[in-house]
Design goal:
- Keywords: Magnesium, Metal-binding.
- It comes from Klenkia soli.
- It catalyses: adenosine 3',5'-bisphosphate + H2O = AMP + phosphate.
- This is 3'(2'),5-bisphosphonucleoside 3'(2')-phosphohydrolase.
- InterPro entries: CysQ/Inositol_MonoPase, Inositol_monoP_metal-BS, Inositol_monophosphatase-like.
- There is one protein chain.
- Helices cover about 40% and strands about 25% of the residues.
- It is α/β, with parallel strands linked by helices.
- The protein folds into 2 domains: about 120 residues, Fructose-1,6-Bisphosphatase, subunit A, domain 1 (Fructose-1,6-Bisphosphatase, Chain A, domain 1); about 100 residues, D-Maltodextrin-Binding Protein, domain 2.
- The strands form 2 sheets. A 5-stranded mixed sheet has the order 1-2-3-4-5, with helices on both faces. Strands 7-6-8-10-9 form a 5-stranded mixed sheet, sandwiched between helices.
- Strand 1, helix 3 and strand 2 form a beta-alpha-beta unit.
- Helix 5 crosses helix 8.
- The protein is globular, with a radius of gyration of 17 Å.
- The N and C termini lie far apart (about 45 Å).
- It binds adenosine-3'-5'-diphosphate and magnesium ion (MG).
- Magnesium ion (MG) binds next to strand 2.
């Protein structure tokens, strides 16, 4: 199993525990907590079995300095969009599994699972972004904390806002042609964007910080508070709008 296959297998393993759990008896906070824990367990077990020497940075595990000297680091969010998952009837939540490698100084393989849609998107083969449909441009934003810069970007593009949960789901909404851009500010961590950004880049989309600088992974500070993901031809207009 190569690295992308392993990432995809880990995303599927998480889906295999998350879907039955969601359809079981737990609700609300208890369902969210169980989902986070069970998905973490499923992914960690596969990574430990197949890549015992690799380091892991996960939302649901204690971070250590060890990853800063490691050559290979998996960056994992076992359940992104916990709020949407625990609602029981929404599809906008995701599983993130990415690999960062020192040789490249960047993300080199990733998979993002969308269990409620039965899909796993990867860096290889990369998804094909559909053609732009007729109608106004669409900017995906957090449904629970839409930032002012996203409204500004939408206004500058004469676009409509598409409120959705999960950074992974929103990034893949651009990949899958449900949105043309995703703008976030105000807070987020490396695991919220790593795997989705890797898949978006592989699909030919533009990704950066709000100020246009590159998104950097496996740096000491896990806080990576803002990002832009969009069709490449929109990048200049989106970045100008959010500045
Ligand atoms: N202001 C903020 N501070 C910290 N984390 C944030 C944040 N805004 C969004 N996030 C995180 O980014 C992910 C997507 O958020 P949103 O759905 O609002 O777009 C969520 O991850 P989790 O669901 O894994 O916790 C959420 O916790
Ligand atoms: Mg998350």
């Amino acid at each position: 199993m190569d690295d992308v296959e392993l990432a995809a297998a880990a995303a599927r393993a998480a889906a295999d525990v998350l879907l039955p759990l969601r359809d079981g008896r737990l609700r609300d906070g208890a369902l969210g907590d169980a989902g986070d824990a069970e998905a973490q367990r499923a992914i960690a077990a596969l990574l430990a079995e197949h890549r015992p020497g690799d380091a892991v940075l996960s939302e649901e595990a204690t971070d250590t300095d060890q990853r800063l000297d490691a050559d290979r680091v998996w960056i994992v969010d076992p359940l992104d969009g916990t709020k949407e998952y625990r609602s029981g009837d929404r599809h906008d939540w995701a599983v993130h599994v990415a690999l960062w490698e020192r040789g490249a100084g960047d993300l080199t393989a990733a998979a993002v699972g969308l269990p409620a849609l039965g899909e796993v998107l990867t860096t290889d083969p990369a998804p094909v972004v559909p053609a732009v449909p007729a109608g106004p441009l669409r900017v995906a934003v957090s449904r629970s904390r839409a930032p002012e810069v996203a409204r500004a970007a939408a206004a500058a593009l004469d676009a409509v806002l598409v409120p959705l949960g999960s950074a992974g789901y929103k990034t893949l909404a651009v990949v899958r042609g449900e949105a043309d851009a995703y703008v976030h500010a105000g807070g987020m961590y490396q695991w919220d964007s790593a795997a989705p950004v890797a898949v978006a880049r592989a699909a030919g989309l533009f990704t950066s910080r709000l100020n246009g600088s590159p998104l950097r992974y496996n740096v000491a500070d896990t806080w990576l508070p803002d990002l832009v993901v969009c069709r490449p031809e929109l990048a200049d207009r989106v970045l100008a709008a959010v500045r």
